[in-house]
Amino acid sequence: MIVEGGQGWVQLTSSIYLRVKTRYDIPHTVQISIKPIGKNRLKIITLYNHKGGVSKTTSTFNLASYLAGDGCKVLMVDADPQCNLTEIALAKTIETLDGKDEKSSSGKLSELPGTSILDALNQRIRGDVPFIDLDKVKTVCVSNNLYLLRGAVDLSSVEDDLAEAHVQRLAMRTNLMRTYVSIGDFLTRIADREEYDYIFVDVGPSSGALTRAFFLVCDAFFIPVAPDRFNVQAIGTLSAILDRWMHEHSLIYKQYQELGMPVRPGNPAFLGAIVQAFKLYAGRAKPGYRLWMGRLPKQIQSSLRPVMKKYSKTQELYLPGTGKTTAVDIPDFGQLAPLMQDVGKAVFNVSQEDTARITDSGKPWAGNNWTTAQERMRKYKEKFSTLANIIYSID
Fold this sequence. Notes:
Elements: E1 7-11, E2 16-22, E3 30-36, E4 43-47, H1 56-69, E5 74-79, H2 84-89, H3 91-103, H4 117-125, E6 140-143, E7 146-149, H5 159-167, H6 174-194, E8 198-203, H7 209-215, E9 220-225, H8 229-258, E10 269-275, E11 280-281, E12 284-285, H9 287-310, E13 326-329, H10 336-343, H11 367-392
Parallel strand pairs: 4-8, 4-9, 5-7, 5-8, 9-10, 10-13
Antiparallel strand pairs: 1-2, 2-3, 6-7, 11-12
Helix pairs in contact: 1-11, 5-6, 8-9
């Protein structure tokens, strides 16, 4: 096989893809990695914590962007009524539409492109169809290989319906059973049709029916966390929430399968904690943060690990094993955080020209400012590369 400058995935067998990446300046240097394809290829992943303020959405966007840039086809689903993921992903589009609306005398807001997750779910919840019609769902292409099913600020309007389907899940009422399995069935089918490698679901910082419904359709999850007292304490309550959710789902899983319902397993694997929102001093986390970064693994080991082991009947669900429970630690983005949200790019894809948007002079960063920013962005990209490799390693 001859590989020219560039990168991509080459199919070797019916179940193996070989990732080929070459250097343009060194034609004979080839970097490779392997990922599975076929039935088990799709992975639905979420970054979940019922505690807010942990950079959940920005990390979801950055990780999805990294995988897309690495040759994977990725769909992001904004299942948080706050719609922060949609705001980042469609930043440029929203800026254009806001400019048009400002000049309009109608007072109406322009509609965002694509279908919202609420529009999709309402086919089943408000309509009479047994399953969501994929032909009525249109995702938005954010960038090469990266797509979005946008959010809706009134998504919580279906929370009561999802709660009822959950409470009545043992009643075996066909209508409610179809609602109960609708999210997982929809995401699986759209992934098959559009050939997505990964789906990232951005859920809200809650423990309500909406978040539960989306969490239970996932294959795996990271826990984004800040290194402070209350985040470490919250691991205990989070573990109890996940234990309850997985137990309640397990009561109907086999019955739904026997009835031919497209039910998801409902036992996502834990991939590790993503420690964020901390500042550095002399290249290290400040002492106050290091204290809680040290205590976090112990709390995860004592609270979450027993829960995941409890449901590891057919496969291991606590994937950090005996190693590090922290998948990666990502220092505060500083000025790059509002900038990436403003331009709708991953933090490591911000250009020098983009920086002009946040300077008083309107001129881009230059000299040492830009050189330092480039080095920081390189390190951030390495962090998300680490997370991507964890995802690639999922069996």
